[in-house]
Amino acid sequence: MERFELNGMWWLPDNPDHRVAGKLTFDPDPRMGITLKTIGASFDAVPKYVKTINLTSEPIKQTIHRFEIILGNTETGKQVTLVDCQISSLSFIVDYDTQTYNIKKIIEGMHVNQKEELLFEQITIHYTNLANWFKSNIMEEVRTIYDKTTIKNEQTPNSVKAEIANWKVTLGVLPGSIHKPFKEITFLYTGSITLRSEINAELSNYEKIENKILVFLMLATNNLLKEDSIEFINISEHSFGKVIRAYSNSRYISNDYYNYGYLFDYSDIEENFDLYLNKWFFLYEKIDITIQLYTTLLYTPEMYIHSKILTLAQALESYHRVLYGGYYLDNDAYKPYKDKLTGQIDQNLEKSHRDSLKSRIKYGNEYSLRKRITLIVESLEETYGDVVLAIIKNKK
After folding, report:
1. Do 240 and 354 sit in the same domain of this protein?
2. 212 or 127, greater pLDDT
3. d(CA 226, CA 189)
4. Which one of 277, 347, 360, 373 has the largest count of C-beta atoms within 10 Å of its C-beta?
């Protein structure tokens, strides 16, 4: 996806008569992101909160504007809805002032007054770096203008489908194109996820489902996936049956992140995609905390090494605790030992010391972190011994 700018008039849903001129900028680099810069006036609205800054002897109260929705019409006549907008900077000049807002998502082609009105029948998300996962099945067609017979033609892989509750999921590749004037047209294929709901679903519900599938694919590819663009089929009264395009402010993916190969290939799940994806959704609810810790590591490669180790250790401990438990004895069997050990604590010790010893005894029946990690590695060595050794070697 390429950078673009849109000039237009912008306003808040509850005050359509007060319109502000401004420029909307989309930059695929998440460090730049999506911004709206308004010129000459501000939106008349009650601030969401006031932050006090103690920089001088007199505290300064800074108004922080957060708007759920900002609406706009571009100079080319396009309707635009901006979702989750927060002011990031203010500039005051003699004749006018400017405000810059950070935007989470651009929805092009419709207006809504609140997020609950963003109802869609279907959503397709294209990812910039997912197509390679389909390996040799992915191809690139080159059709020259002067010789239309020059085509690299290979069969694309079949899409796979799954059903989860009221959702239908399709994973596959879709064609796009890059035009080179007077030379050739290159048709590229991008990996995509299509979600379809049996009922009118809000955008936030789609995002929750997408996030779970995205983590599944990130684990498969051992890579960070970045949204390129989004397409909606809208069934609300605002734009019935119309295809809507959207653009998100993606997370930053550092060049410091290294890929150590795929955990599993597309061909490994092609025949039983429905089974694997449903099992993943079942496990996701159990290991949600583990997933959050792990994805934090992926998206913050600049984290200090000791913080990475602590976060990874927490993730492994959480994973083992949820899926395997990890107790030396049944709680009933351990209770006599706990009571006996607790009774041996010298009452002459300081109270905080006694409480510390009681706490250690209370949790003394649980596996230590060292034992949990050892058991995890041993369980992997039997099935994925070569993979484990490769990861250890590369991480060194």
Report:
1. no
2. 212
3. 15
4. 277
Name the residue among 54, 95, 77, 56 with its Cα closest to residue 6. 77
Residues 6 or more apart whose CB falls under 8 angstroms from that of 332 comprise: none
Specify the range with the lowest mean pLDDT, choosing from 49-58, 59-68, 229-238, 361-370.
49-58
The domain boundary residue, chosen from 252, 275, 308: 252
Q: Whose CA is closest to 7, among 16, 18, 20?
A: 20
Entry pTM: 0.72
Does residue 52 surpass a pLDDT of 90? no
Whether residues 144 and 89 fall in one domain: no
Nearest to 42 by CA among 92, 94, 102: 92
Q: What are phi and psi of 312, to 5 degrees?
A: -65, -40
Residues 6+ apart with CB under 8 A from 363: none
Q: Between 351-362 and 331-343, two packed helices, what is the crossing angle to 10 degrees?
A: 160
Q: Based on the structure, what is the number of domains in the chain?
A: 4
pLDDT tens digits along 8-26? 999 999 888 888 899 999 8
CA distance 215 to 320: 19
15-26 and 60-64: which strand pairing? unpaired
> What confidence tens digit (pLDDT) does each residue in 92-112 have?
555 567 788 888 888 888 898
Residue 243: predicted pLDDT? 64
